[in-house]
Ligand-binding protein SH3
Amino acid sequence: MHWLVLVLSGVMEAVWATALGASDGLRRPGPTGLFAASGTLSMVGLAWAMTELPAGTSYAVWVGIGAVGTVLLAVLRRQERLGLARGALLLVLVVCVAGLKAVS
């Protein structure tokens, strides 16, 4: 259960990062509210997951999911392009995060 919460918290990290970018310096209420809500859920979930999982591994997995998710959201929103090198590097990041989970 803790791993599931950690993964969902990583997804919420991608949501808050994307919402923060869309908030225009916290001047747009919709994205600002989404940023605040998803940021809170992300941090609370990470904190709870760390009650049973190692802090270093939890944080690395959380950041990795958030980073990959943020890039993928930007690609889906057509704000960034996903080239071959960038896609390969994201894949390496995903493999490293999965590896951390496997050895924990």
The chain has a mean pLDDT of 94. Residues 55-76 form the longest helix (22 residues).
